[in-house]
Specification:
about 300 residues, alpha+beta, Porin, 5 helices, about 35% strand, globular
Length: about 300
């Protein structure tokens, strides 16, 4: 079977993040069909964000856009069932609105999240400087790098390792998969949706939230020479935060700069900054994840 085209993959991403409204403040999100059983955490975050954004759009008030989300993962999601999102309208003010979102499968919560939205306004401004890094055009894609080492990957991981991705990643410091050496807890990569996805800014925010879960947790594993294919390592996202600072397009290159200042007690803490190509800091992220070495 031929791999899907970039346009097909981008359309699949749009469909995946387009939650269906079932009733007032009740939405349903589709599950992915990668066939690996477990739902990607970034998908649940992005769909929950979309549900919160839709509940604000319904009010008819002056547009408020999401500027932060704080999520806690409670259970892994399964690909076999849709995800139901219930939104609670905690606050609707002149400048801000706050939403609580609980994602459930088969009646059991898998994620809880709060989302804050703000009416656009001007104010004092400053930001960190974007790092000087190679342009994405000068780097190999994650897919090309993985294809080059596929013979070194255990057979049971190969289908997942090479599955077509809806978000293209071009790492600046590619990691070693077969025999990882210990290295500082820093990594950067460019990412974007694999094809144009239209002009809906709520969708672009959801795609960034989706992609923000892709390389963040792995940063904390770098100093220890392990990764998700290490059979003694159990990893899972525990919580995830995204702050959205400036407008951007998720189908244009964004630079994701990640670091991990601390790991301990079977948990790894990670931070990220997302820059547009013009140097604007458009988002910041933070995440703590389970990092448990098993016998």
């Amino acid at each position: 079977m031929e791999n899907p085209s970039p346009a097909d993959l981008a359309a699949k991403l749009v469909r995946l993040l387009d939650v269906e409204q079932l009733d007032t403040d009740l939405f349903r999100g589709a599950c992915g069909d990668d066939g690996f059983g477990r739902v990607f955490g970034g998908q649940v975050i992005a769909q929950g964000l979309q549900a919160a954004q839709r509940s604000v759009e319904e009010t008819g008030a002056e547009t408020k856009t999401a500027h932060s989300l704080h999520a806690y993962f409670m259970r892994p999601g399964a690909e076999d069932y849709p995800i139901i999102y219930r939104v609670v309208r905690d606050f609707d003010g002149n400048s801000f609105a706050t939403r609580r979102v609980v994602a459930t499968q088969r009646g059991v919560p898998i994620l809880s999240m709060t989302v804050s939205l703000q009416r656009p306004e001007e104010g004092l401004a400053h930001q960190d400087t974007m790092p000087d890094v190679p342009a994405p055009e000068d780097l190999k894609s994650e897919t090309e790098l993985r294809e080059a080492v596929i013979e070194q990957i255990p057979e049971r991981f190969r289908a997942n390792f090479l599955r077509p991705r809806m978000v293209e990643i071009r790492p600046i410091e590619p990691r070693e998969w077969s025999n990882p050496a210990k290295r500082p807890p820093n990594q950067s990569s460019w990412f974007r949706a694999v094809a144009p996805v239209g002009d809906d800014q709520a969708l672009h925010r959801a795609i960034l939230a989706y992609a923000s879960d892709m390389t963040l947790l792995g940063t904390a594993t770098l100093p220890h020479g392990v990764h998700w294919m290490t059979h003694k390592l159990q990893t899972a996202s525990l919580d995830h935060t995204v702050w959205l600072h400036e407008p951007f397009r998720a189908d244009e290159w964004l630079l994701y700069v990640c670091d991990s200042p601390w790991t301990g007690h079977a948990r790894g803490f990670n931070r990220g900054q997302v820059f547009a190509r013009d140097g604007r800091l458009v988002a910041s992220t933070a995440q703590e994840g389970l990092m448990r070495l098993r016998e």
